Amino acid sequence: DIVMTQTQLSSAVTLGQPASISCRSSQSLVHSDGNTYLSWLQQRPGQPPRLLIYKIFNRFSGVPDRFSGSGAGTDFTLKISRVEAEDVGVYYCMQATQFPRTFGGGTKVEIK
Amino acid sequence: QVQLVESGGGVVQPGRSLRLSCGASGFPFGSYGMHWVRQAPGKGLEWVAVIWHDGSNKDYTDSVKGRFTISRDNSKNTMYLQMNSLRAEDTAVYYCARDAVECSGGSCYSLFAFDIWGQGTMVTVSS
């Protein structure tokens, strides 16, 4: 199975400041079809997860443009350009290059 | 409105069975692959099972193989998860999720991501 490892934010984020979340996979996520199936999800407190980003950097419908994804191979990053109060929650990366689908352990975003 | 609604959760003793349902509305259910994902209390997300849009293929995480069975009835817009021989470690909120699809030029492709999630149903396995 592919293991997904997320780094923890070292401290709470100030409103309006950027935040960056890292995710690393135990093996390359490049699929045999050439695509890289890495997505990011947000889970606000008490809510189900919500898709933010798919295939590394594609923003899902309705997701604000302050969210962006980047990376390649085994290293990926989710950036929030200016954190807003509604961004509080836990963020997960997920690989769908092979079964079983696997998630990172989650990174909590809190506001200072 | 595109929606997924889970039901069937509850408290059950170890070794017993439970069947979860996931009702879909607002989209052509039979055109989408579907998944079950669970989340133990205070923990992260764990993928459980997948079923192809037509039910032709299924897969499971190792810890539930031989105990859980995923199925669907496209005529009822409903997916199921039959859970047998339940263990304490199966205690979790169970979410159903839709496989994201993009269509262009008359063809549709999976985006290999989960775009619609239900609110979840809690399963507690305890004596």
Task: Please give a structural write-up.
The complex is a heterodimer of chains A (112) and B (127). Helix content of chain A is 0%, strand content 42%. Chain A has no helices and 10 strands. In chain A, strands 3, 4, 5, 8, 9 and 10 form a 6-stranded antiparallel β-sheet that branches. A 4-stranded antiparallel β-sheet of chain A has the order 1-2-7-6, with no helix packed on it. In chain B, strands 2, 4, 5, 6, 9, 10 and 11 form a 7-stranded mixed β-sheet that branches. The relative contact order of chain B is 0.30. The mean pLDDT of chain B is 97. Chains A and B meet through strand 3, strand 4, strand 8 and strand 9 of A and strand 5, strand 9 and strand 10 of B.
Which features would summarize this protein structure in a list?
heterodimer, A: 112 residues, mainly beta, six-stranded antiparallel beta sheet, four-stranded antiparallel beta sheet, 10 strands, 0% helix, 42% strand, globular, B: 127 residues, 11 strands
Order of helices and strands of chain A: EEEEEEEEEE
Shape of chain B: elongated
- General shape of chain A: globular
Distance between the termini of chain A: 36 Å
Number of helices of chain A: 0
Quickly count the helices of chain B: 0
Q: What would you call the structural class of chain A?
A: mainly beta
Low-confidence stretches of chain B: none
How many angstroms separate the termini of chain B?
39 Å
Strand content of chain A: 35-45%
* Secondary-structure element string of chain B: EEEEEEEEEEE
- Describe the sheet with the most strands of chain B: 7 strands, mixed
Number of strands of chain A: 10
Mean residue pLDDT of chain A: 95
Strand content of chain B: over 45%
